Amino acid sequence: MKTEFILQAAQAVNAAILSSESAIESLDREIGDGDHFINMKRGCATIVTMYDELASLSPDAALQKIGMKLLSTIGGASGPLIGSFFMAMAKTVKEQGAETLPQIAAVFAAGVEAIKNRGKADLGEKTMLDVLIPVSRTFTQLAAEGAERAPLLDALKREAETGMLATRDLIATKGRAAFLGERAIGHIDPGAKTSQVIIQTVCDLALG
To answer: What pLDDT is attached to residue 179?
Structure first.
C-alpha cells in the first residue's frame, strides 16, 4: 500500500460517492437521519483537499492524518466511526507493514474491528458492518490462501454487493432505523450502500 494509491483511491471514491448521490439519499430518507450522504460527501471532499499535505507522508502517517481530520469533519455518528477506521489502519500499517495482500487484509480488518468496537455493533444489525465484516473475512481468507489479485478483488466486490443487498431483510438495531422496527424491513441500509460503492471503487482501481 503506497500513499499514492491512498490518494488515488480518495479521488476515485469521491467521484463515485457523488455519482451515487440519488441512490444513497433515497435510502437515507427511507430509514436514516437524512444526513448520511451530506456527511460522506463532506468527508470525501475533505480527504481530496488534503492531497498536497498527504502526498509526502508515509502511508501510515497519511492514514493517521486522514483519520484525525475526519473525526472533526464528518458530522453525526459517522465521524468517530470512519475516523477510527483510518486510525486503526494507520497503526497496523506502522506496526506490520502493508506490502503483501495478507498484510493489506490485516490492515483492513483492523479498521473494520475499530468500527465494530466504536459503534458497539456487529454483523446482522443493518449497518455498514453487514458489508465490511464479510468483505474483511473474505479478504483475510483469500489472501492467506494465496489467491491472485484479480480474482480476490472480484470476490470482494461480489461480497460487498451480497452484504449490501442482505440488509434489505434485516431489522435495524442501531441508529435511527432501530426506531422503525419491522418497518425498516424491505429497505437497504444507506451505510451499507455507501460501503459497497467504496469497496467496488477501490477494488476497480486496484484491478486497473
So the answer is: 45
What are the mean pLDDT values of the chain's consecutive 10-residue runs (208 residues total)? 95 94 78 73 92 96 95 79 95 95 97 93 90 97 96 97 90 57 69 94 93
Maximum C-alpha span of the chain: 49
Instruction: Tell me the CATH number at 188.
Output: 1.25.40.340
pTM across the whole model = 0.90
Counting the structural domains of the chain, the total is: 1
Task: Note down the domain range covering 111.
Answer: 3-207
Helix H or strand E segment including 8: helix 3-19
The rounded distance, in Å, linking the Cα atoms of 69 and 48 is: 12
CA 41 vs CA 51, 76, 83, 119, 197: distances in Å: 16, 13, 15, 21, 13
C-alpha 109/C-alpha 3 separation (Å) is: 19
CA distance linking residue 154 with residue 69, whole number of Å: 31
